[in-house]
Amino acid sequence: MPRTTTSRTRPGFVCAECGWQTTKWTGRCGECQAWGTVAEAGAPTVRTTTAAAVREPARPIAEIDVEAARATPTGVDEFDRVLGGGLVPGAVVLMAGEPGVGKSTLLLDTASRAAAHGRTVLYVTAEESAAQVRLRAERIGALRPRLLLAAETDLATVLGHVEASAPDLLVLDSVQTIASGEVEGAAGGVAQVREVAGAVIAAAKRRGLATLLVGHVTKDGSIAGPRTLEHLVDVVCQFEGDRHSRLRLLRAVKNRYGPTDEVGCFELGEDGIVGLADPSGLFVSRTPEPVPGTCVTVTLEGRRPLMAELQSLVSPSPAQGSARRVTSGLESSRIAMILAVLERRLGLPVANRDTYVATVGGVRLAEPSVDLAVALAVTSAAVDRPLARGLVAFGEVGLAGEVRRVDGVPRRLQEAGRLGVRAAIVPAGSAAGAPAGMTVLEAATLADAVRHARLDP
Fold first, then answer.
1. Which spans are transmembrane here (predicted)?
2. What is the pLDDT of residue 42?
3. Looking at the structure, do residues 34 and 90 belong to the same domain, yes or no?
4. Is residue 174 part of a domain?
5. What pLDDT is recorded for position 304?
6. I need a labelling partner for 81 at 20 to 30 A (CA). Which of 42, 186, 329, 454 fits?
């Protein structure tokens, strides 16, 4: 006897990116705002779903074996930190990032470490030849007997390699360069990416095979391909880094098996990629004497506190009425707001002067807690007086000149104390949790912070 019977007429047009449906064609999707993705749907269909035989009866949830879902460490500590302990059997991880950021190097190193611990790893490359991957593996010391390499671009052949080698870990580089002969269109198209990802994910779930997929990103930084790709996989990781810096950050945008607020830090070099368990020292300069225009802060990348230094330079503008605002590693709109607050609330003359603000080490800081450090660095540069050595500051600055509280103050203070800091300027009511021997100065307003830093104009 049929369990459910549904009769549904498909709409006239469907968005290939997000599945939005409409009765008439539009050039732009009304849901995801993508251009050129709305296409005519198929003919009306009537579908009937009948009850199928149950292969395994439902059991009480307390009787389910959880050992099959235990995470196995990859051997890369920073990668395991982001994943939540390691790779779960059958889990599919999508690694996205800009070209040249180091995705393939990180996954090749992960595959090598897994093979070194006795696991069979199949690395499928569709963008490079097998010889090119072998040269990279030799350079980073990733040659292992149990690391199998195949250069394929056909989906059916890739699945055949999986059946033949029965690996414990599959690495596919990349999902946008594999094509299926059953689907029309070139590799990388919406239909091709959906088919390839669906087939690989189905094989991974059926075999309990941990799978790592490499994905490209578009110009705006989003993952290329259909939006459903991010929903199909279990973990979505973003690999970020400045092309001119050796620092790389790995973030989990989505994680069904662990936290999404952890960040892994890596250093990319000629000999491969190395995890950085303590990267704070990379973002602080080592000047022998205090310099005007510098201020150290403690930011939270996920749940990890990182100490970073901000530098500012304020100089007379050669063109009256058109002062320059140049930022590096910081949001320009946020810097413009802080400069306006300094001008209006403290009377600091910066409106007609060129202002440059940058971070040390190429780190990007988007957290509002760096506002106070930016304000103190600019004030220090404007009055040409340095801050005291061993001083950190963090807090969000409001338009009224108030200093607002931020999250994770005890963790920030503990990190600063571990690195030798002996004084901190924090928002009012945030002194709790400071380590022994640290002087904590509370500031309710920006004027209080400037006075604590001894930068009064």
1. none
2. 60
3. no
4. yes
5. 85
6. 329
Q: Annotated binding site for ATP: which residue ranges?
A: 97-104
Same domain, 87 and 156: yes
Strand order in the sheet with 235-240: 147-151, 121-125, 169-173, 210-215, 92-97, 235-240, 247-255, 263-269, 272-275
Low-confidence ranges of the chain (pLDDT < 50): 1-8, 10, 43, 45-46
**According to the model, what pLDDT value does residue 67 have?**
76
Provide the CB-side half-sphere exposure for 361 (13 A, CA): 21
Q: For position 14, what pLDDT does the model report? A: 82
pLDDT in tens, 149-194: 999 999 999 999 999 999 999 999 989 899 998 888 788 888 888 8
If you count them, how many residues does the chain have? 457
Please report whether residue 59 resides in a domain. no
Same domain? For 117 and 257 the reply is yes
Phi, psi of 281 (to 5 degrees): -65, -15
How many domains does the chain fold into? 3
Q: What is the pLDDT of residue 107?
A: 95
For residues 397 and 426, the answer to whether their CB atoms sit within 8 Å is: no
Say what the pTM is: 0.75
Short-list 244, 275, 236, 246, CA closest to 106: 275
The reply to whether 144 and 26 lie within a common domain is: no
For 293-346, what is each residue's pLDDT tens digit?
999 999 998 788 999 999 999 998 887 778 899 999 899 999 999 999 999 999
User: Do 258 and 289 belong to one domain?
Assistant: no
Determine the pLDDT at residue 370: 96
- pLDDT score, position 10: 47
Residues 137 and 268 in one domain: yes
Strand partners, 211: 92, 170
Considering 227, 245, 277, which residue would you say is the last residue of a domain? Answer: 277
The pLDDT of residue 220: 60
Residues of the binding site: 97-104
Range of the domain at 225: 69-277
In this structure, the strands spanning 169-173 and 210-215 are: parallel
Q: What is the pLDDT, as a whole number, of residue 184?
A: 82
CATH number of the domain residue 342 falls in: 3.30.230.10
